[in-house]
Amino acid sequence: MKKIDLHIHTLATEKDSNFIFDLDKMLLYVQTSKLDAIAITNHNIFDREQFNKIKEKVNISVFPGVEVDVENAHMIVVTEESNLDKFCEQCNQLNERLIDG
Fold first, then answer.
1. Are the CB atoms for 63 and 32 separated by under 8 Å?
2. pTM for this model (two decimals)
């Protein structure tokens, strides 16, 4: 059986409590939890540069994702890395729409 965490926050947003991301702590979490894969799913944003840095450091699969705020709920969206260009564009559009209201 594979162990996967599809809900990893790496950027503090309005929806999160204030925190500072620590790559070493995330690596320790991945190792001690014996995870086979993770998804980076921050609230309504995707940081491609940070995603690439994380992907370089871990020895497991890392999926791009986003946690989308919807009415009174959140929805996790995860994609394949082969779809990264389009996904980044869509996340930028999502963030703009949420800012514009």
1. no
2. 0.89
